[in-house]
Amino acid sequence: MKPIYHRILLKLSGESLAVEGGTGINFDRTVEYAHQIKEIVDAGVQVAIVIGGGNIFRGLKGAAQGFERVKGDQMGMLATVINSLALCSALESIGQPAQVLTAISMVPIGEHYSKWRAIEALEQGKVVIMSCGTGSPYFTTDTGSALRGIEVEADVMLKGTRVDGIYTADPEKDPTATKFDRITYDEIYERGLKVMDMTATIMCKENGLPIHVFNMDVVGNLRRVIAGEGIGTVVNTQ
Quick one: which of 65, 108, 164, 224 has the most CB atoms within 10 Å? Predict the structure, then answer.
């Protein structure tokens, strides 16, 4: 495999690591992801990762249930740390060096995030897992992914989901929905498509970071995206 990317930001949802029912952590699934990630690292790709925390706690949902919003978002940040540690452990268990960086000071759980430390670890061949989102409330892990992808100078943000791309509507609810192979940032806004939150989408547009949405649950798809095969949906300026 000849990779088309040198450095990527891989965004995973917390639910992607969950056990049946959407909560907790499925270690077998986490190890499966680790193998897919190690495969592309072995091919020469530098991999930075941001994971959500929705399988454990989601700040917005907590606020809707009565939690104070800032504290709810901080609880969500801690959930991303748990998922990051789980993926780090899975990667190390198969011989892939990995490191957790946290946007909030949390030594010895993880080293405090900085762009330069992240890039240094990437160039050493480590998978860098960046947790706690942006470190501030009111921002999603989508926005955290966009920010970190831009900061570490990634070639692309790969958004691993449970569907195989971006559709005109939710394909799980609308059987007539059709898939885009390519779409622009502006079209996402004009069509009101819920790919990522608007802050994240605008950040990617303004900083020239393409987004590639694909189904991470199909084993081998990460390698196919890295190899340039035409799966998923690419978001760019044109």
Answer: 164
